[in-house]
Amino acid sequence: MKHRGTGRRALALTAAATIALGGLFVATPAYAEDAAETPVASETAAPETAAPETEAPVEEAPAEDAPAEETPVEDAPPAEAVEAADEAAKSGVEIVAFGTNAAGDDVVVVTEESAGDEAAIEAFTDAAGIDGAAVVTVDSAPTTFAEGDVVGGQGYLSVAAGGQAWACSVGFAAWAPDRSPALISAGHCAFNGTTKLQNTTLSIPGEEPAVGGDGAVPANPELLGRFGFAQFGGVNNTAGSNGDKNATDISVIDLEAGFTPLPAVTDWTTAGAALDSLAGKTVAIKAVGAPKAGSVSKSGRTTGFTTGSINGNHVLNGWAKIEDRWVQGFSSNTKAGPGDSGGSVIQGNTAVGLISGGIEAAPGVPQWTWATSLVNALPKTGGYEVALDLAAPTVSSPAPGADVTPGQTITGSAPGAKSVTVDQGAGAQTVAVSGGKFSFAGPVALGTQSISITSVNGLSSSGTTVISVTVKPAPLVAPVITSPKNGSTVTSAVTSISGTGLPTADITVVDGEGAELGTTTVNGTGSWTISGLTLGYGDHKVVVTQSRAGEVSPAATSAFSVVPVAPGVTSLGSGSSFPHDEGPATLSGTGIEGATVTVNVNGAKATSAKASSFAAASGIYTATVTGGKWSVSFGAPLPTGSYSIAVSQSVGGVSSAPTTVTFAVLAAPGTGGGGGGAVTPGDDGNLAATGVDTMVPLTASAVALALLSGGLLLMARRRRTIEA
Fold first, then answer.
1. What are residue 552's DSSP bridge partners?
2. Per-residue pLDDT tens for 44-98?
3. Burial of 563 (0-12, 13-18, 19+ CB in 10 A)
4. Which terminal residue of the chain has fewer beta carbons within 10 Å of its beta carbon, N or C?
């Protein structure tokens, strides 16, 4: 069988092994074990030239049921912060890491030797804009931890052409963008200094340090796969000295045929036993997310499966300098050591990181482990995703083997899935999953039918759930008319009738006189439509039945009206007001060509006559729309008063709803008039005002009387008050 390994520790391969691997195996350190010049079985410390590790702030995690996607770093450190760290280093102060903790407070991590130089530390926090940050000390600067079924936490070797090999650990099973199998590990495991390595091979689980072994090199190594992508530090594997949010530590291994990566992390309890398989007892990986304060575990070939915590003294969102490079991630006190580099970091069933480096625990020296944040690192790989262990979907209704009606809804749950793929014998369809639930229309063909359902999240998919049901005819009831609705009024010709019914049933639509308007068949989702109709202005009724095998259902009826759209009024706006002697004398607007427009002023009765001059407060006027426009004349400006005018149009005797405008013609200053309708002279109870503005309209009979009595018009005189 095939085995996998973890970490990055330098070991030596024999010449035969090198030849078997094509002379191409190499890797780099970061809690990694480095290569020696001669074959050795023990692990050696990482060379001082190994690439450095850094801390990186953790972004917000994507939904826990989906592979992580890159999210913007909201608190990325300014370039000044990194420059200040370099300046502090010149003063002998080592800024190990900085960022925020679980409470959102700023944290600066320095070595114990540096803690006494408060001035240099203060200069750094000032430049980084994190005054008042809590200062946490660690024993020394961190270093890298580098050293059939492949699982997270298993050991592997990166091999160089010269016969050197570095032991590292597998992080997680993955999918390449083309959905070919892959593994995810630390970026520094793919480099020997500045040289990128190519080939990898699995180490032997039962001989790893995690179970008391000495990390012996396999006698007959087999090509596991080749590094497809690797980044340690900034873009193009720079040190990331500009505080670049792209600084990371991640690699991907494209697998050879014959290896099956499992979406699980080993707990190392089955190494060396029976078949010496690390897949015997594992923790399933069901989601990718950002780390949270609390318990955190890691799996690696050197220290096995260990659990620690992320507490208030740890960086939850920040950068660390691992040897000479910055890496975005988080810290914890989880036990790890050389060879664990690239190993899995999990919280529950959620993948959160990859071991990058740190400080091994020793008497008087606490463990300090730095991990690459997956939610930040994965988007750098060009589309690789962590493989997820998705449970097969479950169907809640109907029960397997149940009798169903054509198109009956199928419901169920698919935890962790974004969608389900459904195959009912007529080609696969994709159905969205919301809140872990799904539903879709079942088969419509009568008889025993099979339904296959598979959960999907990104490139990961579950096993397939298959149920069979027996489709039987449903009770034939009246169909439903959804458009136009019964009792509705519409303003344009109805060109289609639609509704719902029994899938595969035949639909017949007739009008109120029994004349057929059209026929169709209800589709698989229970919908039907009759198109190509022209039901114009007037009252209409449609009657719909559905039939199956000669059986006709009760009828559904919809009575509705088609009326012209209400006309527009363009000459004045509702709510307008006019001076008392400048009321509107006309009203105009837009309408349907040839329509008859009726203008009703103040609710006039239909028998009201239209006067040649407007002397009353109400009236009815008509006009014909020509060129899309209409206009009526009131014969004279409307007098002082409040007005409500309703304008409608009719086509073929069918009237529209009215368009109503309200406005007022103001009373003359000082008259106190304006109650609607014409003003009656002398009916104000006040002293009469004088001047042109006090002219009061006379009725026709008053004018005649004045002419008969000598043509004299009564004029209001100005009253004067003479003080004694």
1. 547
2. 333 333 333 333 333 333 333 333 333 333 444 555 666 677 777 766 777 788 7
3. buried
4. C
In this structure, are residues 353 and 374 in contact, taking their beta carbons and an 8 Å threshold?
A: yes
Q: What is the pLDDT of residues 591-602, one digit of tens each?
A: 999 999 999 999
- Residue 484: is the preceding peptide bond cis (ω within 30°)? yes
Neighbour order of strands in the sheet with 527-530: 480-483, 497-500, 527-530
Q: Are strands 641-651 and 596-601 parallel, antiparallel or unpaired?
A: antiparallel
At 662, the amino acid letter reads T
How far, in Å, are 600, 602, 608 from residue 641 at the CA level?
16, 11, 19
How does pLDDT run across 191-233, given as a tens digit for each residue?
887 788 889 999 999 999 999 998 888 888 889 999 999 999 9
- Please choose, from the candidates 217, 191, 173, 169, the residue with its C-alpha nearest in 3D space to the C-alpha of residue 31: 169
- Provide the pairing of β-strand 145-146 with 31-32: parallel
Render pLDDT for 573-585 as a digit per residue (tens, 0 to 9): 999 999 988 999 9
Helix (H, G, I), strand (E, B) or coil at 529: strand
CA separation for the pair 247, 237 (Å, rounded): 8
CB 599 within 8 A of CB 647: yes
Asked if 290 and 19 count as a contact pair (C-beta separation under 8 A), the reply is no
The DSSP code sequence of 207-231 is GSGGGT---PPPSS--EEEEEEEEE
Residue corresponding to tokens 């559905």: 546
* pLDDT 10s digits, 108-167: 887 777 777 778 887 887 777 777 788 888 877 776 554 368 999 999 999 887 778 889
Non-local CB neighbours of 179 within 8 Å, separated by 6+ positions: 459
Question: Using alpha carbons only, what angle is made at residue 183 by residues 3 and 209, rounded to the nearest 5 degrees?
Answer: 45
Q: Two tokens at 93?
A: 């102060």
Nearest residue to 470 via CA among 524, 541, 538, 398: 398
State the Cα–Cα distance between residues 152 and 288, nearest whole angstrom. Answer: 14
Q: Which amino acid is at 373?
A: S
3-state secondary structure of 313: coil
Q: Give, in order, the Cα–Cα distances in Å from 706 to each of 266, 614, 691, 710, 712.
A: 115, 20, 21, 7, 5
Task: Answer whether 145's CB lies under 8 Å from 336's CB.
Answer: yes
pLDDT of residue 27: 30
How far apart are the C-alpha atoms of 658 and 499, rounded to whole Å? 31
